[in-house]
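pasting input
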Amino acid sequence: MPLIRFGVSIDKELLVKFDRLIKDRKYTNRSEAFRDLIRQELIQEEWQGNHEIAGAVTLIYNHHKRELINKLMDIQHDFGQAIISSQHIHLDHNNCLEIIAVKGSPKEARRLADTLKSVKGVKHGTLSMSSAGKGI
Amino acid sequence: MPLIRFGVSIDKELLVKFDRLIKDRKYTNRSEAFRDLIRQELIQEEWQGNHEIAGAVTLIYNHHKRELINKLMDIQHDFGQAIISSQHIHLDHNNCLEIIAVKGSPKEARRLADTLKSVKGVKHGTLSMSSAGKGI
Amino acid sequence: MPLIRFGVSIDKELLVKFDRLIKDRKYTNRSEAFRDLIRQELIQEEWQGNHEIAGAVTLIYNHHKRELINKLMDIQHDFGQAIISSQHIHLDHNNCLEIIAVKGSPKEARRLADTLKSVKGVKHGTLSMSSAGKGI
Amino acid sequence: MPLIRFGVSIDKELLVKFDRLIKDRKYTNRSEAFRDLIRQELIQEEWQGNHEIAGAVTLIYNHHKRELINKLMDIQHDFGQAIISSQHIHLDHNNCLEIIAVKGSPKEARRLADTLKSVKGVKHGTLSMSSAGKGI
């Protein structure tokens, strides 16, 4: 695809901060960083609408809480359509990290993440909102 | 562990909003929601310091950009100690979702995420900051 | 489901060997071991026919062979329907273990495994033939 | 690495069969097929000795058997050193496919596979014996 070049005006103070950010995050130039900012916004939009999205739910829990695992498993099977697969890591004798790859409607993905996170015994949960890649 | 019960004062307006949030997120009561808020803060702390953390990096990219995959692979092998395993999903004929489970120092995890996200051709990247579970 | 009990005649020599195998493999009794033998046979049958099966392809390769990864990725996208997700482990600075979860027709799964294994640079490949679980 | 070329004598009948096998398995020439046979043998050797190996355990089970999941989880945490991560796929409302990536001593990997497979309720289990890649 052809690259289009155009000017951008930013006040100095903001640009200094932006350049520091760019350096911290290992970008090689401002354009690359801008492209990422735009894509980030597009993904935010995707998650507001009905487009197909992709993402990941991460959970930390203690697998010794017996009913917990069964509940998490049941919920995942109930949301079968939204889940592609999950990755399970035994962090130590007690703690598990579970990363669930999700795909589908943003609403369904959010509902899955909220339902899993609210299960008693889940120590921490996050939802990484990403894209199915077509619109960005 | 014994549950300790204590009072909390919150102005009405804020509480109404909090209760709405709790309902939206499927919590069964305020205490459960508060516990999660506290853990969330503790995890933020963990990511500021030198404690061992766990998390996930998600990447969306078009696998047809030939050099891209090799670069991503090289970076991951360079950060070998910080990576447990990764999960790869072929979203469609072009797009890949890669979810990398990470463990180690917050600084290293951030550096890995930033390095991967800045590779040209990566459409989107996120870093889910979670916990190794011991401190929460 | 009701358990049905019935007698089985086996010559002593064979039974001694079978009991040793049972003990080695941690079975608690002969019935459990027999059930597994029967399921094993049913799965063999599933892989001869057109039933939906599930399984895993494992690959060991050196990721420094540049074209290799691109080829493996292209093949996987071509067989998109048969692949659920894959798990990637960086064994050391050179070697990767990739485990691809497959589902679909036995013929397609075999073809995928053979195609991946025959790529120059793949050091070793296996196909674990398992079941989608419905018929066993 | 330099390729060394040498002659091999095989009776016709066996060669015909071998060539058919090579064709079925998509090899482009006999040398490539021979290299794989040799590596296959080396891996068999690795699994007889004390070298570090890598592999995968696949399990099929019905997640509705409540105690089953807890047992599988406990066993995996007990063998924590041998397990890198696991991949979980919800095949349908009842059946799960779990693929556990293992690394370590052959004896330990076998013991893990046997212990998991012998748990009541596990419908099928396989152990893919592969290599950590250094010796092949």
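fyi Chain B touches chain D through four residues (CB under 8 Å).
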